Amino acid sequence: MDTLETFYKISGLKMNFEKTKAIWIGSMAGSKVRFCPNLKLDWHDGNFEVLGICFNVDLKDLWVINTKKRLDNIYGILSKWKKRNLTLMGKITVVKTLILSTLVHIFSALPNPSKAFIDQLNRILFNFIWSGKRDKIKRDYLKRNYSQGGLKMTDIPKIISSLKKFHLAHIYTLGASLHKNWEIVNPFWKDTLIAWSDFMHSYDFEESWRQNIDKNLHSSSNLTISPWIYDLTRSIKGTKVFYNKLIGYSLPLPKSCLKWENQLGCSFPWKQIFSVYCHGLRDTKLRDFQFRFIHKVIFTKRELLRMKLIDNDECSMCHTHKENIFHVYIECHVVKNFWSDFCIYLTHILHRKILITDNELLFGTSDVLINHLIVAAKRFIFVQCIKNENVDFVAFKNTIRSIYDVEYHIARRKNDFFAFNRKWALFPQTAK
Ligand SMILES: [Zn+2]
């Protein structure tokens, strides 16, 4: 108390005794001995909270006591948002901003949670993303970066690992006080070293660096974390670099891409295709549609028949062929006429010959306007098929008009017509 009093006199930071709670830890845990009765401190035996983290004296079940209330909150937030008709990207944004942001602090400050907790959390989050139905796209694919065919859904074990890297510099600073018999026993520091070891194995570091970490992790020899780790942890700011390294930049193609290649008998520039729908399409509903289309989770009668939801897979447009994704969007003569009218219309409007290949119809093109209209047309075909209505190009012209109106309205609200004019400049007023 004298020390705290001296500290107050020097720094001006005074202890508020009315709000101070005292608890015995270590060998005196549970003791009924009370010091400084004149200060009327509030003595406790149970859990106590420091900087938003709840502790107990034996440091057991920390995850249970810290997450019970948080999990109830998460259920509450998600049950409100699930009533809205959000896209996959919209739901992932909700997960990141409203759910995981509330857990980052405990991910960073506590030893790693059990596998059961991570599984439970993943179950809750993916249940929300797929609206209570089974996953339609592998979780590993959703967690990838855009350029690898993913939607940047957070990988929980990997974000925990990335957050732990901050503490490695402290191991170096604190040195020998952290370990007993030259071996790290505290689970928190052990997790920190494991996180670092994982990072080393996922990154092309020098072998000697990797060995240095592994030696610290597994051997009972002297703890010698070299100054380079300290420098490295200080030089890389934030967790993004570490997280992206753990997620990986060069991953095998998603299975749906291989299926497209097998079906069409050629290979495609997938990175470019992923980039076109992720960065070229601003309309999130269309982006969502194209993402599902590339991952082959746009259902046609073929899939519905397999699930025994209908009793035949006859094409709802031509009534002569069997429906599958290629037939509905490319092959069917009704849709061929639609695309022919589509090209004639654009040729007329844009005053240049517009020819669109099957591959461009399937996977998009780098022309922002034409790409937008192709995906909008595919979604139009999809909706008309569901409603059992004609795939009629005249009706689609109304969709083009509403796309134009929405983008014009957005540009006017932002008072920024630069991108709008660049995209729609060639579209004459009469056609809109
Ligand atoms: Zn057909």
Please give the domain count.
4
Query: Unreliable runs, pLDDT <50, ≥5 residues?
Result: 178-182, 220-224
Supply Rg: 29 Å
Number of strands: 6
The span between the termini is 78 Å
Global shape: elongated
Strand order of the largest sheet: 1-2
Q: In percent, how helical is the residue content?
A: 55-70%
Bound molecules: zinc ion
Order of helices and strands: HEEEEHHHHHHHEEHHHHHHHHHHHHHH
Q: Beta-strand level of the residues, as a percent range?
A: under 5%
Number of helices: 22
Question: Mind describing the biggest β-sheet?
Answer: 2 strands, parallel
Indicate the mean pLDDT: 82
Describe the structure.
- The chain has 432 residues and is mainly alpha-helical.
- It is 57% helix and 4% strand.
- It contains 22 helices and six strands.
- A two-stranded parallel sheet has the order 1-2.
- α2 (62-81) runs antiparallel to α3 (88-99), α8 (168-174) runs antiparallel to α11 (227-235) and α15 (284-294) crosses α20.
- The model is unreliable at 178-182 and 220-224 (pLDDT under 50).
- It binds zinc ion.
